[in-house]
From TrEMBL:
The keyword Aminoacyl-tRNA synthetase does not apply. InterPro entries: TMEM222/RTE1 (IPR008496). Coiled coil: none annotated. This is Protein REVERSION-TO-ETHYLENE SENSITIVITY1-like isoform X1. The keyword Oxidoreductase does not apply. It comes from the Eukaryota. Keywords: Membrane, Transmembrane, Transmembrane helix. It comes from Nicotiana tabacum. One of its GO terms (biological process) is regulation of ethylene-activated signaling pathway. GO terms for cellular component: endoplasmic reticulum; Golgi apparatus. The chain crosses the membrane at residues 217-237.
Length: 243
């Protein structure tokens, strides 16, 4: 050994690999979630949905959507510059769908992305945890104006999922968020089903009895108009929609 120099140490490559794997496991270790408890309005890492007054009476697929923290607390965008925490703004949760945190991307740095859209994800905004993504979206949306057609509760949830790069996708929007919770969501109980569809059934029966087939045609037209707007605005006129 030469004077003034430190001794050279051989580094075992296997040790380096094991250390890196251990660090990666620590960074992505996810603690267990509590059980879903509808009575306490606790839905850990879930998308939650409830019907809207009047609007859902005419189009039962339309509703209000929120997303839940890891402890089950509901968070939703309920109005201009307003984020509601603790419960959905328009009623108790009727449907829920629990998401898998293992499908999220929590990169410690640009090289640590597990999704394929590393640069796009970094530019949009990443998160180190599930709750961190919801917190970042909350800070963004609490300064936005609510618009039911261009910037609404679905937009807020889509923003959260894009920050998580959930499912390896950065293309979450109002339409596929709604389709996800409606197609895969579970009903809380039987009364939730009645609360969601009974007003629509009553409206259809009463309207048909009083007006006739013209009322049913009007309901169908309203249904197509609402669905058509969101599909066209989302996929054909991207500059109209805020995320």
């Amino acid at each position: 050994m030469f004077p003034g120099r430190f001794p050279m140490m051989d580094v075992n490559p296997r040790y380096v690999v094991d250390r890196d794997n251990a660090l990666q496991r620590i960074q992505h270790d996810l603690w267990p979630l509590d059980e879903i408890d509808p009575k306490k309005e606790k839905f850990p890492c879930c998308l939650v949905w409830t019907p809207l007054p009047v609007v859902s009476w005419l189009a039962p697929f339309v509703g209000h959507v929120g997303i839940c923290r890891e402890d089950g607390t509901v968070v939703d965008f309920s109005g201009s510059n307003m984020i509601t925490v603790g419960n959905l703004s328009y009623g108790a949760v009727a449907r829920y769908y629990q998401l898998d945190r293992r499908q999220c991307c929590f990169p410690p740095n640009l090289a640590g992305h597990t999704c394929k859209q590393g640069y796009q994800h970094a530019e949009f905004g990443t998160a180190v945890s599930w709750d961190d993504a919801l917190h970042s979206s909350t800070l963004s949306f609490e300064h936005r104006n609510f618009n039911p057609f261009t910037c609404n509760d679905h937009s807020f949830v889509a923003d959260c999922l894009n920050r998580l790069s959930y499912g390896g996708s950065m293309n979450w929007n109002m339409v596929n968020v709604g389709v996800l919770v409606l197609s895969k969501g579970q009903w809380v109980n039987g009364s939730s089903i009645l609360r969601s569809f009974m007003p629509f059934i009553v409206m259809v029966c009463f309207g048909h009895l009083m007006v006739g087939w013209q009322f049913l045609i009007g309901i169908l037209s309203f249904f197509l108009l609402v669905a058509g707007w969101y599909i066209l605005a989302t996929y054909c006129f991207n500059n109209l929609i805020e995320y």
